[in-house]
Amino acid sequence: MIGPMSSEANPDTRIEQTAARAPARVAPAPGPAADGGGRTVWFTRLVMIGIVLAAFNLRPAITSLGALLEEVRTGLGMSGTVAGLLTSVPALCFALFGLAAPRLARRFGPGAVVLAGMIAITAGLLIRPFAGGTAGFLAASALALMGIAVSNVLMPVIVKRYFPDRVGSMTGLYSMALAVGTSAAAAVTVPLTQALGGGWRVGLGFWALLAAVAVLPWLALVRDRRGGALPAPASAPAPAAGGGADRRAPRITRSPTAWALACFFGLQATGAYITMGWMPQIFRDAGVPAGTAGVLLATTMVMGVPLAFVIPRLATRLSSQGPIVVVLGACGLTGYAGLLTAPAAGAWAWALLLGISNCAFPLALTMIGLRSRTPAGVVRLSAFAQSTGYLISIPGPLLVGALYQHSGGWELPITLMAGLLVPQIVFGVLAGRDRTIEDETGMRD
User: Fold this and answer.
1) Does a structural domain hold residue 338?
2) How many Å apart are CA 43 and CA 38, to the nearest integer?
3) What angle do CA 97, 99, 103 make, to 5 degrees?
């Protein structure tokens, strides 16, 4: 907050500080404080473009590989165990590398770290198709996932920092772009590979081109600083908080809301990974043709495109997000009940309901921005909730697979999926209460 800082400065200093920070403010039109009469609008639009392009590239590294996993296994001579491990590696990398994001953001600025993340994604996607063997493929994948992990954590921070009055709409835009990227990579990779000659290496490597495009706006934003980092808006905390932030960071674990949000994030991620990994098989085992089962999964994923824009906007208008959590959970419970009783007959209805339920992800991102008053608090909360949440999500898909193999049917796995929605609803309601981590932990603004 600039109030305490400005009270200690003379009027001339305050004017200079305001002018220096004006480019990063969100304004409907250029004001007198904007450099060159229009730099504020230009800067705001460039940040928006950067957010959209970055979000679009946060999942193709994962979903494009899933579409060509069989070809990759054959081409690299990869064992079934290693191929199975690949499905759990993203969540593990998100959890581990995401923990480094707050420290990196304090040292270099969130914009510079997102830029580095986009470069890492581009390099990883470009290198891994042409790696000499399984080890090189895994290393290049880890590089891309590292870039995704830090960007995952810092996207809500960028939104909160540069659009504090539009958290809902900007989170919705970011979530919608992420959903489009996820669905596009899953749907387009195979036909694109065939169109380019059928080689899986070219099909996977194509997504490096789109990741490289996402580097450009962030490179321009960082260079605009003349010092290598995005300029802080007027509402940002003093840079001197860096040292103190390290000492205060552990206090995030004292916040019941932070823990509730982490559990909610982890359980919704568990449901999403289970859906992406197993829903087509559920429909195929029920007699649905393989092609239709794939379209049903795409339908579930596409539901996230419009709802990812609507739900965050609605969430910011409510003092408590608990009612949205309950509605999304009820849709999921109904969908799982349908999969148990009539999986083939009501397949389209269950796919739509589970698609709605999976929109707990943009809601969780929105609550990260709402449960803290300051950009520094959002950094810590985002890192804690996402890293802890992704760790929670790792066993879910593996456990569903084990139950399916052990029981020979889907009754037990689907019952487990439905059962996990109950604590998800409980933790979501707790995380949605109108309070902030600063109030609960005594963190200073």
Assistant:
1) yes
2) 9
3) 110
Mean pLDDT of the chain: 80
Regarding whether 216 and 118 lie in a shared domain, the answer is: yes
More confident residue, 172 or 215: 215
Say if residue 280 is in the same domain as residue 389. Answer: yes
Residue 136's domain comprises 1-236
Shared domain check, 142 and 24:
yes
Q: Which residues, other chains included, contact 79 with Cβ-Cβ below 8 Å and sequence gap of 6+?
A: none
Residue type, 365: L
**Is 444 domain-assigned?**
no
- 8 A C-beta contact, residue 145 and residue 108: no
State the number of CA atoms in the 13 A half-sphere of 169 facing the CB: 6
The pLDDT of 72-96, averaged and rounded, is 76
Residue linked to tokens 């400065």: 9
Using left for φ > 0, alpha for ψ between -120 and 50, and beta otherwise, residue 59 falls in: alpha
The Cα 298–Cα 354 span in angstroms is 12
Q: What share of the chain is helix, strand, coil (3-state, %, to 5)?
A: 80, 0, 20
What residues have CB less than 8 Å from 315, skipping those under 6 apart? 168, 321, 324, 363, 366, 367, 370
Backbone φ, ψ for residue 218 (5° rounding): -70, -35
Question: Given CA atoms 409, 293, 52, 62 in this order, what sign does their dihedral have?
Answer: positive
Res. 424: pLDDT tops 90: yes
Give the domain-ending residue among 179, 206, 236.
236
How many distinct structural domains can be found in the chain?
A: 2
* Inside any domain, residue 421: yes
Distance CA 131, CA 139 (A): 9
Phi, psi of 408 (to 5 degrees): 75, 10
Tell whether 389 and 329 lie within a shared domain. Answer: yes
Q: Give the tens place of pLDDT for each residue, 214-236.
A: 999 999 888 765 333 444 444 44
Specify the pLDDT at position 377: 85
Same domain, 308 and 361: yes
Query: Which of 236, 268, 299 finishes a domain?
Result: 236
